[in-house]
Structure formats: structure tokens, C-alpha cells
Amino acid sequence: MKVTIIGAGSYIWSFGFSRQLIDSKAIKGLELTLMDISVPDLNRTAEIIEKYNTSHGSPAVIKRSGDLNAAVKGADFVVVCISTGGLDAMEHDLAVPARYGIFHTVGDTVGPGGLLRAVRNIPVFARIGKAMQKYCPNAWLINVSNPLTVLTRTPHKLYGIKTIGMCPGVDEQAKLLCRIAGFANDARIDFTVAGIDHGSWFTSLMADGKDVLAILKKQGYYRSDGKLPKTVKGHDPLAEDSGSIAVFALWRELGYMPALNDRHQTENFPWFLPRSSSADIPYRIKRTSIQDRRNWRKGRIKLYSNPGSALEKLSAGHGDDPVVEVIESLAGFRSLTYSVNYRNVGQTPQLPPDAVVETRARFDAAGVHPFASPLPPIPTITVLPHVIRQETIIDIALNGTFDELVALVLTDPLCSRLELPQCRRMVREMLQANKHLIPNRKLLKFN
User: Fold this and answer.
1) For residues 409 and 423, what is the distance between their CA atoms, to the nearest angstrom?
2) Domain 87-113+168-287+344-447 in this protein, CATH class
3) Residue 235: helix, strand or coil by DSSP?
4) 272-307: per-residue pLDDT in tens?
5) Which CATH number fits domain 2-86+114-167+298-343: 3.90.1820.10, 3.40.50.80, 1.10.260.40, 3.90.190.10?
6) pTM above 0.70, yes or no
7) Measured at the alpha carbon of residue 339, what is the angle toward residues 337 and 344, in degrees to the nearest 5?
8) Torsion sign across C-alpha atoms 298, 304, 309, 315
9) Could you tell me where the beta strands, DSSP code E, fall in 120-159?
């Protein structure tokens, strides 16, 4: 088996994925190709991964590559974990909208930040899809990069590549809500979820055969006053519920429980983040700043600068997400049930065919089997416009004009309080800040 990690210089993903692949008892004779356009980052991570492999009896053959075509040639699985322009580019995704009163909490999926991030990343995923069509047309592409839904869609829409988007947010939120309701960490959890990444909804949630949403409602979480039904202490193991106050408010007012935490879910609605200042953001919603992300990265670099320590802690961020379990399942070694972002083959009939949607699914040797996950009318009203925007942004990023991009961004709910000329100026500033990362020059012909 050949597995290629594109963006292998990443401190968030590549260590954990590599460790899991090397430790896998099912995968034998693994060729692991680590690919990144940043040679220093690639060499830094590859050195540690190679030492880990050696210390475990060298079960894998590890190769380094800076060439996309060579890296994917003959691959069975291609894992993509990139961010075009990195934190320096993302800084403008947050800073420019903030000057116009839009205070992104994350800024990687929807709103002006998410859409402009898509504009940078879509051309890269188009190149990856084209290379895979030529050099490994039957391989699976597993994407963990944001905006996850639209980037997962791009290689399939353009080149027919089998793509999967993996995000642990839904499964982690399901576990959190069950803990808040009083269930043990090892409770047997079952749920139905429908929507898109960072914008999906629980239509059922059970733990040990009991209705978790009914229990939470009885406990007093079904409310939109910004309060919790009990005092949360700093060391309380359930203190995490304070990160879902806005989610509880949406549940109360819309009638359906969001399947993500406040930081992601609130970016789908204009009620929360367009403000006169970041201090006005309600419901104790926490923003993740670029400085927070830079500090986290510095901590990772410090940790992994000591190879001995790194060998024992070869995981970081989302590196323990079940991507390798998905690979083992699709290769026929096991089966797995988990949430997935996958093309709509009818599992959510309220959303367009082939658009990437988020549901649970079973993975096995026969492929991906999404569970039927119909979306009720009210959540559909919130999700469908985002799906249409994400389908449209692919064409605009590759071949569209500045005017078309402005029109699309203006339709996003977070821009609803902007005066019309403000949106044009905001998009222009965001493009100018990252113009070196925009291959479609028509987007840079401002008017």
C-alpha cells in the first residue's frame, strides 16, 4: 500500500497520521510518501517520523518529495492537510472583515473569511485532482483541510476523484452533549446528523438507548437567555458546556440541536458575529485569534525540536482523528462507522445531488455507505444557501471575475449588515492582501 500525505510539513496533522500508519497492525509493506512545498518544514517533520519508524522496527518505507506528480504516482490513498499561505494569509481573512464589523470566531469555512480562504485553496485542490487523475485515478483522496466541504468537492467535481472529507467535530460534540446529560465516557452513542461541515444538525441523539436531547431539555439546557441551568466551576469536568451556550440558544429558537460547538456553528448566522466590536459578541462565544494559532505552533515546534520527546508524543492537534481507521476499512481490514463529508448520493435528499454533505457512514472494502439523513425544513433553510455558495465558489475561484466574487460574498449571512459598497471594498482588500496566492488573475481586476 502506498499512502501519500500532502502537506506533510504540518504540525497539526502529519505526526499523528504517520504514527498511526506506522503502528497499524493491519497495513503491511507500507510506502509512506511525505510531500510538502516547504522543504524546511518537510525535512523537520520527516526526520522525526523516520526516527519513529526506525525505533519501531522500520515497518514502513518512508520517502520525501517536493513534487506533486511523483508523490501521488501509484498511490492508493492521498491524505491532504494543507492551508495555502498558512497563518500569514489567514490573518487577513480575520483582520479585514473585522474592520467592517464581522468578527470571525474561526474564519475557515463560511463568511468572507471562509470564502476567500476557499479562493486560495481551490486551485491547489484542482491541481491535486488533475495529478491524481493521471497518476493514481483509482486512489481515494481523504481531505482534512478547510473549508472542508468545498475542498472535498473540488477534485470530484472537476476530475471524478473519489473524495472523503474527515472532521471529528460532530462525533466530539455528540460525546460532549452525552457527558453533559450525565452519561459515562464509554456510553454507547448513536445519532443521526445532516448538513455540511461546520454547519450540521442532530436530528436524533441517543446514549445507552436513552434520548439525550430529551434529557438535556429536562435539565434546563433548552434556553436562549445565555445562561446555564447550573453554576459551572473552572475544574468542573462538564465545564465544556459553557462552550455551547449559543448552540443551546439556536436549539431553543430553531427547534433543532446544532451538531457543532459555538465557535463553528455561530458563523452560519448573522445574529452573533457582525458587531460594533469584538467585545459585543454575546453568549460568551470565544474567538480563535491568529496569535493563538501562532502560539500553538510555537509550542509544537518546541516539543518536536527534541526528537526523544517527539518519539514518545508523536501526535498533535487532529493527528489522532480516525483517518487511518478509514484507510484500514476501505482497504478491507475492518469496518468503521463515523461521520463523513461525502458526495450526496441521496442520503440527504433536501440538498443537491453530488454536493458534499455531512452524515454518518459505514466504511468497508466496498466503499463509503452514507446513512439516510433527511434534513428537516428549518435546518434546510440555513444549510442550502451555503451549499449553493460552495458549489458556485469553485467555478469563481478558477475562472470567475472580481464582480462575481463580490456578488457571492455579499449573499453570505455575515455580510447582511454591510452597506453594498462596503462589501466590494472588503473583498478588494482581502484579495490584495493575498494576491500572490491567487492564480486566477481575473479576480484581481478590480472595479
Assistant:
1) 8
2) alpha beta
3) coil
4) 999 999 999 999 998 999 999 999 888 877 777 765
5) 3.90.1820.10
6) yes
7) 110
8) positive
9) 140-143
